[in-house]
Amino acid sequence: MKSVLFPYVLCLSLMLILAETQANENESCVAIRIAEEQCGEHTFKAVRPLLKYIHQMKEEMENNNNKIEGKDREIKQLQQKLAARNEDLIAEQKAQIDLYKQSIKELTNNVLFIKEEMGRLISNALKIQDYEEQLEKQKKSIDQQAQQISELNNEINKKLKSHEEKPVYGKCTDTPGIHKIKPDQGPPFDALCDSTTAGPGWMVIQQRINGREDFYRNWATYREGFGSFDGDFFLGLEKIHRLTRAQPHELYIHMEGFDGDIKYRRYDQFGISGEEDQYTLISLGESEGSAKYDYFECHKDKKFTTFDRDNDNYHRNCASRDERGGGWWYDYCGFSNLNGKYYDYKVSKVDAIFWDGITSLKTVKMLIRPKSKGK
Q1: How, if at all, do strands 262-272 and 287-288 pair?
Q2: Nearest to 243 by CA among 182, 290, 301
């Protein structure tokens, strides 16, 4: 039995070896024919189906290998795509993480800022509380002061009421400054008292010191008065009349030139009439002083003249702009013009403030005082 099988096995081995070593089907066919010749026709026919099956299996294995190689390539491509996709995802995740880190950093800074602000707010709240306490104390202090002011106002009102019931001063006292004057039953008025120019108790009725006031004024203005006590002013004809009518007054005229020369003229009986008589200069009395000549005497018994009321004896209005340029007791215009135009330098003009000739004066004051004060 062994001797019968051996040829078949040998033949089959030879065929397998030949089939594996051949490169194509033609060569396989040649190998089969060789095997048939070597193994015998009967033996080959017995194993031929087996050889055919083996050949088919080999082809299927090759096809499967090719498919496996294709699938390996697809897997490799997919792995490459997956790796690229993973890299993109990792980059996106990294960018997202960086964004989260930046947001966290900003939020952390905001939290720190809010903490600082809260600290300041708490500090400010404490300060506000202190301020409120201080304000409360100040309010109490203000209320107390308001109460004191109210009490003082009541006391002042009582004193004012008491003062109103007392007669107002009818003349200047020894204290200089602005005082309320009431020489008669008419309304009181303010007046400037002077205790330095010619002694105590004098009242200034006219003053020329800086040229801030224009003395080219109409009748009504001279009647009521104009100017300010700290500069040039004229008290007013009606007030002067009330003063000199109430009691006898003396007059003092103070004059200073641009050369520094100071002179005066004093009259012991000064008075003017009322408006019905055009405020006539009715009296001067005796005069004396350092001014060499009396250039006011010639104006006695003359009515007051302004540019809109001509009461002088000249054929033209002496108060007009092209003549003496100011209100005065003009005759034929006259030798003095203390209400003329103010020049801040020495000139010789008929419209200037002058006494001796027409040389301008730097300052002038006319003061009156009740004769009860004495000379």
Answers
A1: antiparallel
A2: 182
Measured between alpha carbons, how far is 7 from 39 in angstroms, rounded to an integer? 7
263-285 CB burial, b ≥16 within 10 A, e <16? bbbbbbbbbbbeeeebbbbbbbb
DSSP string of 319-361, one letter each residue: TSTTTT-S-B--SSS-S-BTTSB--SS--B-TTB-BSSTTBPE
Query: 3-class SS at 120?
Result: helix
Query: Using one digit for the tens of pLDDT, what is the confidence trace for 292-308?
Result: 899 999 999 999 999 99
Domain range for 230: 177-373
Share of the chain above pLDDT 90, in %: 50
Cα–Cα distance, 371 to 284 (Å, whole number):
12
Cα 288-292-297 angle, rounded to 5 deg: 60
Same domain, 146 and 190: no
**Amino acid sitting at position 90:** I
Instruction: Give the span between the Cα atoms of 253 and 373, in whole angstroms.
Output: 17
Given this model, what pLDDT does residue 37 score?
61
Number of domains within the chain: 2
Tell me: pLDDT of 163 over 80: no
Tell which residue, 326, 94, 319, 105, has the closest CA to residue 226: 326
